Amino acid sequence: MRIGDWFKKDLKTKIVSLLLALLFWLYVSNVTNPFKSVIIYNVPVSVINEEFLDQNDYTLKNTLRTYIDVTIRGRQDVVEKVRSTDFVTTLDLSQIESVNDKKLKLSEPVCLLKEVTVESYNPPEIDIQLARNKIGTFEVELVPNIKMKQGYVLLNTTVSPEKIQIMNEEATIDSIGSIKAFLELTDLDRDTVRQVQCKVYNKAGREIGSLSRDLNVRVSVETAKEVPVSLVTRGRLATNYIETQRIIEPLKVLVTGPADILEDLKDIKTEQVDIDKLNGNFAATVPLVVPDGTKIVNSPREINVRIDVERLVVKNFQFGRDEISILNARNDGTLIYEIISESALVQFRGRQADLDEINEESLKPAVDVANLGEGVHRLQLNINMPGKGTLVQRANVEVKISKTPVQELPEDDDVPVTNPE
Q1: Contacts of 135 (CB under 8 A, 6+ apart)
Q2: How far apart are CA 369 and CA 402, in angstroms?
Q3: DSSP letters along 267-283, please?
Q4: Backbone φ, ψ for residue 211 (5° rounding)
C-alpha cells in the first residue's frame, strides 16, 4: 500500500480527531479560564490642551472629573490582572466650541494589555462649566485722608500705576464700578512714598473681595512748608516822615527741601531795600533770597512791595488862663491862686488824620499846686494825653500864690446900741 493511499485512508479520522481535540480544549479552557466581564473603577483621565482655555479667554468654573469606570471583557486570568492605570483615555479641551458648551466627549479608553476588550465606559462625557475671560482697564481713584503738620501744605499726590488691568470672567469685569486706594497719613511734614492696597467695588458700591487681594499701587506724596516773607530794609525815612502802610504780596511762599532744613526755616528774606531818607511812596519788585538746599514752588521768586509814607504835621492848641484848671489848691481860704500867664501853647505832631481826631475839650489843661506856698511858681501844664499823635514839648505856666488879706473888724463905738424901752 502506498503512503499516499494510507494518508487518504485516515484523513477523515484525523480531521474528526482534530475537531474533537479542539472542542475538548475549548471546553477545558471555558471551564478552567472562562471569558469574563469586569468593571475597572477610577480609571484616570488625562486632560490635554489645557492652554486652549487661556488662548481663547475661557475660565473653567467647575472642577473636571478626572476618572471614569471602564467595563472590559477577556479571559479570567487576563482581566484579573488589569488595573486602573492600564488604560489611556483623554479629555481634549480643544473640543470647546463655545462658552455655552456643557459636556466634552472622552476619547475611547485603550487598554495597554493584550486580549482585553473595552465593552463600555461611564461616563462617556465630562461635565464642564465655562466662562469667557475679559480684560478690563480701570483708573485708580485715590481716597486720601492726610492731616498736615501745622505750617505745611500738601502739594501733590501721584498714583503709580494710574490704571490697573484686571482679567476675570466677563460678567465680573462688567460689574466693576471703581478701584479705590485709601491713604491715611497724620502730622505729615515731608515727602513720602507708600504702598497702598486697593479695593475693588462693584457698581452698587460693594467690595469685590476676591479681586481686592494682592492689588496694590505706589502713592507718592509731595509736601511744602508755608513760610512768611520778611522784607529787609536799610536806612531811615526822611525826618518827620512816617510809614503808614507796608504791603507785601505775597505774604507767604511755599518752600520744599530736606525735612531738617524746613523745620528750622522761619522766614524767607528779601534782598535789601534802601529806604534811607525816603520822603514819598515806594513800590518795587524785590527778589527773594532762597536758602541753600531749598526751592520755592508754586510761588513767585520775587515779591511786590509797596511802602506808603506821610509827612508828619504839627497841630497847635492855645489855652487861655481861664481855660486852665488849678488842682489841689488849699481849701481853707488862706491862699489865693492866680494864673498870671496869658495863655499856654500845646503842640502835637502826627498824621493829619490822627491830629484831626483830637478834641480840644478832651485835653483838660490843668496845673497842680499841691504843697506850694506863697510866691510865683512856674508849673508844667498837665493835659490828658490823646491816644494818637505825640507831644512836641510840654508847656509851662506861671502861677502866683498869695495870702488872703485879713479883714479888720469895726470899732465898738461904731456899733449901734439898742436901748430897751
Answers
A1: 165, 166, 167, 173
A2: 12
A3: -EEBPPEE-TT--S-EE
A4: -90, -15
Where are the alpha helices (H) located in 249-319, listed in sequence order? 259-264
Which of 155, 223, 149 lies closest to 186, judged by CA?
A: 149
Cβ of 306: how many Cβ atoms within 10 Å?
A: 13
Contact residues for 80 (Cβ-Cβ < 8 A; gap 6+): 36, 38
Quote the CA–CA distance of 23 and 18 in Å, as a whole number. 9
Q: In sequence order, which residues have a C-beta less than 8 Å from that of residue 418 and are 6 or more positions away? A: none
Residue 189, SS3 per DSSP? coil
Close Cβ partners of 357 (under 8 Å, ≥ 6 residues apart): 386, 388
Say if residue 24's pLDDT is above 70: no
The pLDDT of residue 393: 84
Model pTM score: 0.63
Written as nine digits, the cell of 106 is 472622552
| For residues 147-161, average pLDDT | 97
Predicted confidence at residue 14, as pLDDT, reads 61
Per-residue pLDDT reduced to its tens digit, 288-338: 999 999 999 999 999 999 999 999 999 999 999 999 999 999 988 899 999
List domains and CATH numbers for the chain: 35-128 (2.170.120.30), 132-223 (2.170.120), 231-310 (2.170.120.40), 313-403 (2.170.120.30)
Closest CA to 253 of 276, 232, 226: 226
Calculate the alpha carbon distances from 54 to 59, 133, 386 in Å.
8, 8, 93
3-state SS, residue 14? helix
Q: What are phi and psi of 224, to 5 degrees?
A: -150, 160
Cα separation of 363 and 59, whole Å?
98
- Residue 175 is which amino acid? S
Q: Which residue has the cell 501733590?
A: 156
Q: Could you tell me the CA-to-CA distances from 398 to 173, 326, 364, 394 in Å, in that order?
A: 104, 12, 17, 14
The share of the chain scoring above pLDDT 90, in percent, equals 80
> Does the pLDDT at position 413 exceed 80?
no
DSSP 19-48: HHHHHHHHHHHHHHS-EEEEEEEEEE-EEE
